[in-house]
Structure formats: C-alpha cells, structure tokens
Amino acid sequence: MMRIGILTSGEDAPGMNTAIGDVVKAANYYNIDVVGINYGYQGLIEGAIYPLTSSDLENFTDTGGTVLKTSRSPELREIEEIKIQDTLEKFEIHALVIIGDKKSFAAAEKIQQLGIKAVGIPATIENDMAYTDYSIGFDTTVNTILDCIHKIKDTSLSHDKTTIVEVMGKNCGDLALFSALAGGGEIISTPERKLNLDKICSTLDMRINNGKRDNIVVITEGLYDIQELQKDIQEKLNISVRTSTLGFLQWGGNPSAFDRILASRMGIAAIELIMNEQTGKAVGIKENRIIDVDFDRIDIDKESKLEGYRLLEILQNA
Predict the structure, then answer these.
(1) pTM for the whole thing?
(2) Domain boundaries 141-251, corresponding CATH code
(3) Which residues contact 125 (CB under 8 A, 6 or more apart)?
(4) Nearest in space to 14 (alpha carbons), one of 91, 180, 127
(5) Residue range 109-146, pLDDT digits in tens
(6) Where are the chain's structural domains?
(7) What CATH class does 3-137+255-302 carry?
(8) N or C terminus: fewer CB in 10 A for the chain?
C-alpha cells in the first residue's frame, strides 16, 4: 500500500487543520495510508512521525492553528537531507504533502530534486504566492481584520479621530488591500503601493475638509515606524491620531467557510497529483479553478494580483 506523510511548515494559518483532515480523507478514499509529521521539516529530520486517521482529526478540522504543529522552514543542509531520506525509508513513506508558505515550498523543491516525491498546498495568511489567487488562511484573516477595524471605527466615529491600523504582510499588501476593498479603510499603504508622508497627509486633509473627520489608515507592517508616522501626521495636520497594531491575533481563529472549502479542494487535488505521479508541484486556484504549477514557478502572474488597486481607486474616489 502507498503511504504518504503530511507536514505543516512556516507560520500557522486558519484552515491548515481542514487541509490536513481532507488530505487524510482523500487518501483513505483512494486506499492510501497516511502518517503525520510533527513540527514541520524538523520533525521529518528527527523522525517525529505517527499514524494519522480521520478519527484522530475529527475535533480539529474546523479549528485554527495546526494539530501537527509547525516550525520555520529551514535551508536544508546536506546532513539534514540525508536524515530526511533515512526517515522516509525507515517509515516507508512514498510521498509528502507539504502545507505551508513560500519558504516551505523552496524546501519541498529541494526535496523533490533528491528524488523524493512532494506536493505543496499553500497556507499563509499573507497570500504572498503570486501563482495562486488565494492561499488557505487569507480569507479568514481578512475577516478578522475587518472585524477589528469595524470596532475601531465605532470609537473613531464617536471621537472624530484618525486611526492608523498596522496589519501583517511584509512582502505582500493583500491583507491591507482586501480589507480596504471590503470597507475596512479609507487610505492604505502597502509594499506594492507605498505612500509617502505627504500623500497620506494630503489625502487625510482633503477628507477632513470634506467633512470626514474619522478616518482609518491601513498600513502593512514594516513600511514605517508607526509611532513616528503618528507623530508626523499629528504635527503636519494638527489633528489627534491613534494607532493600533493588530499583531498575532491575525493568525488565529476558526477558518471561514471559504477557507474550509478551499482547503478541501486543494487537499483532494494534492492526493490526486500524487496518485498520477505529478509531483514537484504546488496546488493553487485561479478564477475558481484548481491548478498546479512546478515549485519553481510560484512567483508567476504577479501582476494579475494588482487589479485590486484599480478597483480601490474607483471605489474611494467616486
């Protein structure tokens, strides 16, 4: 009987447990044995492996986080590659399903080059892999951010305050962009469209002069020193500005319906790729159609994600 191993790698994301559970169910449907690997690649190196069944996951598939635990994806050294090969031989694992981020896929590509079959499922709240429209966890996190911003808006409206909200996304501004598109912010600054101080202040000044005295500025982490930005805006416009860094709460929470369905579709696709011996690939979704690309092509179609900025410009300047 074929046996596959599942691991989660990188930062956790809501929907990882759904993906794990549905990979197991799809494998069972096709009469494939499954083992779980704890703590990502580190567990694969150390042999932290155990049998995994649907009943083991029954109470976890609709929860956040990852029941398999996770760790940062390593830059695999030669000695670690040997240990991974030894582990796979010892536990008679024929292929791996790797649920994680861009760095997780880089390690998976290296493993595939060693002759070890691997398929990737994208799970990262930042949605920073260009080949796929969405990664598992992104939709849930956008909804978490929206919920937080709506609460902030309640008090901003009551006091006529401007609030700077910092969200995650060091290399991708999709969390800020989609939150704004869904009504969660009037001004956004992201790695793809970074605004300088003068632009932020001129836009705020225009809105205030037009009677909109409570404003939300959504920024992606790492673009500014948020306290310095607050101070500079206050001095330049003579207004009171608050700040809120949402932080780690963006990673948590039960996955949304969209993320659960996406995880199911991708989980089944991953198993079918392995069955058809089409490994060395990452599963994705484009225009609501499940796709797959080679690991070395996960950064294709970067420009196709930028349409949202055009939509935002129309919606916020109408």
Answers:
(1) 0.94
(2) 3.40.50.460
(3) 11, 13, 14, 135, 137, 138, 140, 141, 168, 175, 250, 251
(4) 127
(5) 999 998 999 999 999 999 999 999 999 999 999 999 99
(6) 3-137+255-302, 141-251
(7) alpha beta
(8) C
